[in-house]
Amino acid sequence: MNLKPRYPMQFLVALIAAFLLWYALAAQRSENISVRGVQARLTLVNMKRDLVLMSSVPDTVSLQLRGPLTRALSSATPPEVLLDLSDARPGLNSYPINASDIPLPADVEVVSVDPPAITLELERQETRIVPVRPTVSGEPAPGFVISEVRVQPAQFTIQGPESLLMALEYVETGLISIEDAAGPVEAMVEPLLADPLLRAIGLGPIQVVVEIVPEAAAEEREAAE
């Protein structure tokens, strides 16, 4: 009976490949289990569109992990905590961070999480129509006065947290200088929103026209009225 391989070179290559595979699997099985502290990115997911986050949120969460970390974790893609807010409601709430919120390889376990919970303040998002108040600075030339200030558009819609909108009476514009002006001053200015959580909906620059007339003409107009 002839046991000599028909293709000895191919047989040798296959034998070496099998040995290397066995060696790699054996090395994995014998790898030491280690415990390591890592910083995981915190991401809020599934938050409803009609809610606004009012509180600050940490960028990362400290994790202590256990397992064959050298092989299982890549420094190029650090762990990430996915905090599910699908059941969030307006108000101040504490959301615990569970191991199920942290996608990890099956052979890596979470030993501890710091902080173990995140406290978030959420508020309902609303819209409101608010008047525009132009900001005029300076004084006209001697003998001239402001007779009228026209704004276009005179109001616009703002979206933001309910509490901020309730306290908002008007929105100011960028500065319009009338220093030493002896005639109408026209300017295109932007609205100035007091809080970054507020935003204007569908609004471009605001046109402001400040009518400046001789003081005598203004007095005649008042007398006629």
Structural description of this entry:
The chain has helices spanning 8-30, 69-72, 162-166, 215-224, and strands spanning 34-45, 51-53, 60-67, 80-84, 91-96, 109-114, 117-137, 144-152, 155-161, 171-177, 185-189, 191-192, 199-200, 206-214. The termini are far apart. Strands 2, 5, 7, 9, 10, 12 and 13 form a 7-stranded mixed β-sheet that branches. A 4-stranded mixed β-sheet has the order 4-1-3-6. The chain is α+β, with helices and mostly antiparallel strands and 225 residues long. The chain has 4 helices and 14 strands. Helix content is 19%, strand content 45%. The radius of gyration is 34 Å and the shape is elongated.
Topology:
Blueprint: H1 8-30, E1 34-45, E2 51-53, E3 60-67, H2 69-72, E4 80-84, E5 91-96, E6 109-114, E7 117-137, E8 144-152, E9 155-161, H3 162-166, E10 171-177, E11 185-189, E12 191-192, E13 199-200, E14 206-214, H4 215-224
Q: Would you summarize the structure shown here?
A:
It is built from four helices and 14 strands.
Main sheet makeup: 7 strands, mixed
The dominant shape is elongated
Distance between the termini: 127 Å
Mean pLDDT: 83
Q: What is the helix content?
A: 10-25%
Q: In percent terms, what proportion of residues is strand?
A: over 45%
Number of helices: 4
Low-confidence stretches: none
Q: What is the C-alpha radius of gyration, as a whole number of Å?
A: 34 Å
Describe this protein with a few key phrases.
225 residues, alpha+beta, 7-stranded mixed beta sheet, 4 helices, 14 strands, 45% strand, elongated
